[in-house]
Amino acid sequence: MNALRLSVLAAVLAVVGCGGQKVQPSAAPPTAAAAKVVLQDVVQTGQLNSGMMQVREVVQQIKQTDAAKGDALLSELDALEKATDPETIKAKAKSLADKL
Question: If I label 10, which of 24, 26, 50, 58 is the partner at 20 to 30 A Cα–Cα?
């Protein structure tokens, strides 16, 4: 009798455990507002961070809908990423944020 109960319990747990997981929707693409937040942080610190990948994604999204604006923003972003002087980085980040 105990073996039967244990078998039933194990079967119920196996069935419940297999179907209880939900699929998470994929993350939404970054927005211009999120990119501005990243750039404002760069303006404050004068240092580039990993959030710059989000900025690049946003600029590439803009390029898909407005090629001229996207190309101009990509040029500014490339110049920002190549800059090494903190004051130059701050100025370029502010300029890019203002254009988003």
Answer: 24
